[in-house]
Design a protein that fits this description.
The chain has 251 residues and is mainly alpha-helical. It contains nine helices and three strands. It has a three-stranded antiparallel β-sheet with strand order 2-1-3.
Length: 251
């Protein structure tokens, strides 16, 4: 207590001190009083504990802030990726629809849809309703061309196609094999079940139809992009809206 009194005696007149120095002086006096009250050893132990608690809290706050930033960054990147995937799906479905419209004007496109980006699975659908159940070779080739339209649209937009085309390729292959082996519309009327020549002919058909479909979409590339934008905005287009879109754009 004597030390505190000595310090007080040596302090100059408070009248000329700024508020900052006044507060500092009071803080120092309180510290000295605390040391005098509990002893130096206990005081520094307490100070160490307070420092450690403060350090832990500060580090935890920094870690929480970094985690929050990472989550926000990942969320933003994930959303960007979802939108990119959805756009690719929109191109894909637009490719199907345009070729179907140009090759089979009598068939009705009931709906074109792409899933909402908040859903876990991003995908699309183009529902076609064929008016005839008796199909000729030209109709079947047109179906193959339509099935490959999504693949071609992706390649025109991005220079490559995604794994989302696997189902279309599988269906196109099945249709080509049926045309050759079941309907007798290939180079031969009869093929054995696993005849390699039938597989080679099916591959040639797929390549030929892909080339033809590519030319169709190249000529109508502006329509492809417009329909993609329409899908991105509405997510789903019904039959009336599809008809209106094609009529407005002259196909």
């Amino acid at each position: 207590m004597e030390k505190i009194m000595k310090i007080c005696k040596n302090i100059k007149e408070i009248r000329g001190c700024t508020l900052y120095y006044l507060v500092t002086m009071i803080f120092i006096l309180n510290l000295l009083f605390l040391i005098e009250l509990i002893g130096k050893k206990e005081f520094f132990c307490m100070l160490t504990v307070m420092y450690l608690l403060f350090s832990y809290d500060a580090i935890k706050n920094i870690a929480d802030e970094l985690n929050l930033r990472d989550k926000q960054k990942n969320s933003t990147e994930s959303r960007k990726q979802c939108i990119a995937d959805l756009e690719k799906t929109a191109f894909h479905e637009a490719g199907h629809a345009i070729i179907a419209r140009l090759l089979n004007p009598n068939s009705k496109i009931k709906k074109i849809a792409i899933k909402n980006i908040l859903e876990n699975n991003i995908g699309g659908v183009t529902n076609l309703e064929y008016q005839s159940v008796v199909l000729t070779k030209s109709h079947i080739l047109g179906e193959i061309r339509t099935l490959l339209g999504g693949l071609i649209a992706e390649e025109l937009a991005y220079g490559e196609h995604s794994n989302g085309v696997c189902s279309d390729i599988s269906k196109a292959q099945t249709v080509a094999m049926k045309m050759i082996q079941n309907y007798g519309m290939g180079k031969r009327l009869i093929y054995a079940k696993d005849d390699a020549r039938a597989i080679e002919e099916a591959e040639l058909i797929l390549q030929n139809e892909k080339a033809k479909a590519t030319e169709i979409l190249k000529v109508n590339k502006n329509i492809l992009y417009l329909l993609k934008e329409e899908l991105m905005q509405k997510r789903e287009i019904n039959e009336e809206e599809i008809e209106e879109f094609f009529k407005t754009n002259g196909i």
